[in-house]
Design a protein that fits this description.
The complex is a heterodimer of chains A (126) and B (403). With 126 residues, chain A is mostly helical. Chain A has five helices and three strands. Chain B is globular, with a radius of gyration of 21 Å. The chains are: A mainly alpha (126), B mainly beta (403).
Chain lengths: 126, 403
């Protein structure tokens, strides 16, 4: 047992009586400035639309990706992570860490489009 | 805490027993030693950990930094700027550190539940505990089935000193546990935007209520206020338990009747078989078991032939260390190492060392720890889908070239 030092007579501590104080919960606002699509190809445009609002929840809520005007702050900043297509597709299909799998709600073509878009827009495309 | 400095003198050991000196060329390799190389792409430290020593860590990704095997040193305590980082989600805004004393934590599941500030916690008690902090995925790189997640080798671990108030004192001060509670549940202070189901991403972990006996609500690490990336202003520290259970930015500590419904509790951090999906019926990632690894030589650079001090660390998740053996031939033969440095308690790691006379050649160095209860570090990992809890001495071996 570790050795600790404590205040005497815990039963007489001012907190022993008990009164309830509510904790404030902050809610992050989602900044969703729209950026212009700059990639050009159709798969890029499809992936971009999926990223911004085509999945539940949308990728943009949790991730920052400048090209999409997304500033989500839950998951990694994709402009820093710069994942390639394979890495994006694996994360979307299987989930990773706190990110759930989207395999049940997206088609294979949609996942490929998302992967193409994120890799290209973040600079991770090989 | 007992302070029993023990220095290892080369002369003593050299004269003391020929058995302490081993010198053989490498024969076989028991396990697969993975080179501890930085990922190919050059990466920089994330802003919230910009003060880390970039030369001491491997940057897997912005939320996952690993201490290099060569960066542990022999002081026993892991320097905070060398300590690994693993965040399940991006840390909150640094502004939460602006008023450390005013940070609030709700204490529930006690007879007189209430919310307390850090300043108020400091009127209840104080305790200091050295613990091994280790990500449950440490050693994942050695799993041959390539589980997803960071490819941690040995350095998602460190030994650090925490200071804070014992949870047991807080609970007692608030009237003791409520009726029917079985778990100690901690909730992280990350906030999530509307549209995201909090249960999928929140960091909330439930442990057997006995964990309360050693747990701290800590505000200090290694002599300084707890940095944001390590959970400041306040972290639930649960000695002996895997890293994920030490909830950062803790905003709620609850004694609960049931385990948390969050994904991180129900279906993540479970020890399920390879090829299966984790369910709440699979064992949860809880306590750590006996493990050790060599820290020097690290394999990063060739070693000069002659007497080489092999050093490392051994720990047991709450059981004191009794013995560490070292092998230079991949586990074929073993010799006893000596513990050195202060004993920082049963939750800390103990340092060990042994001088070996090493001729030119290639070696596979590894260590095998035994705790006071007689548990011996195993040769083989326990296979599981996500690559958790690897304690294999074969996996953690390091290849060393002596010239």
């Amino acid at each position: 047992m570790p050795c600790g030092c404590r205040s005497p007579e815990p039963g007489r501590h001012p907190f022993a009586g008990g009164c309830r104080v509510g904790a404030a919960v902050a809610v992050l606002a989602l900044g969703a400035a729209a950026g212009a699509a700059t990639g050009g190809d159709a798969q890029f445009a499809e992936g971009r639309a999926l990223f911004i609002g085509g999945t539940t929840p949308p990728c943009a809520i949790c991730h920052t990706l400048k090209e999409a005007g997304a500033s989500g702050a839950v998951g990694p900043v994709l402009d820093e992570l710069r994942p390639d297509e394979e890495r994006v597709a694996a994360a979307v299909r299987g989930g990773i860490g706190a990110m759930p799998s989207f395999a049940a709600s997206l088609s294979d073509a949609q996942i490929r489009a998302l992967a193409h878009y994120v890799a290209k827009a973040s600079g991770g495309a090989r | 805490m007992t302070d029993s400095p023990l220095s290892l003198r080369r002369r003593q050991l050299l004269a003391g027993g020929a058995g302490a000196i081993a010198g053989t060329g490498l024969v076989g390799l028991a396990g697969e030693a993975v080179a501890q190389a930085a990922p190919a792409a050059a990466k920089s430290l994330p802003a919230f950990a910009s003060w880390k020593d970039a030369n001491a860590v491997i940057i897997h990704n912005p939320n996952e930094l690993e201490t290099k095997r060569s960066a542990f040193g022999t002081s026993g305590i892991t320097a905070t700027d060398h300590l690994y980082v693993r965040n399940n989600v991006t840390p909150p805004d640094p502004s939460i550190l602006n008023d450390r004393g005013g940070w609030q934590v709700a204490i529930e599941g006690v007879r007189n539940p209430r919310t307390l500030t850090v300043n108020e916690l400091k009127t209840i008690g104080v305790e200091t505990t050295a613990t091994v902090l280790q990500c449950s995925g440490n050693g994942r790189a050695f799993f041959p089935h390539k589980p997803s997640g960071a490819k941690w080798t040995v350095g998602a671990s460190g030994c650090v000193v925490w200071s804070g108030v014992p949870v047991r004192y807080v609970v007692e001060t608030l009237g003791g546990p409520a009726a029917g509670v079985h778990y100690l549940t901690g909730t992280g202070g990350e906030t999530f935007p509307a549209g995201v189901d909090p249960l999928t991403v929140m960091v909330e972990r439930s442990l057997p209520i006995e964990a309360m006996n050693d747990a701290l609500l800590a505000w200090e690490i290694n002599g300084e206020p707890l940095p944001l990336v390590h959970g400041g202003p306040l972290r639930l520290v649960v000695p002996g338990y895997q890293g994920v259970n030490n909830v950062k930015y803790v905003k709620r500590v609850a004694l609960t009747a049931a385990e948390s419904p969050a994904s991180i509790q129900k279906t993540r951090y479970r020890l399920n078989a390879i090829g299966t999906q984790a369910t709440p019926a699979d064992p949860s990632v809880l306590g750590m078991t006996v493990k050790s690894f060599v820290t020097s030589p690290s394999g990063a650079e060739p070693v000069k032939a002659g007497v080489v001090y092999v050093t490392g660390v051994a720990f047991g998740g709450g059981s004191p260390m009794k013995r560490v053996e070292v092998s230079s031939d991949g586990g074929r033969t073993w010799i006893d190492a000596q513990f050195f440095g202060p004993d920082l308690g049963r939750f800390a790691w103990r340092q060990f060392a042994v001088p070996l006379r090493m001729a030119a050649g290639n070696y596979v160095l590894t260590s095998r720890a035994t705790d006071a209860a007689g548990h011996v570090q195993p040769e083989l990992r326990s296979e599981n889908a996500a690559g958790y809890a690897n304690t294999s001495w074969a996996d953690h071996a390091v290849r060393v070239s002596v010239a």
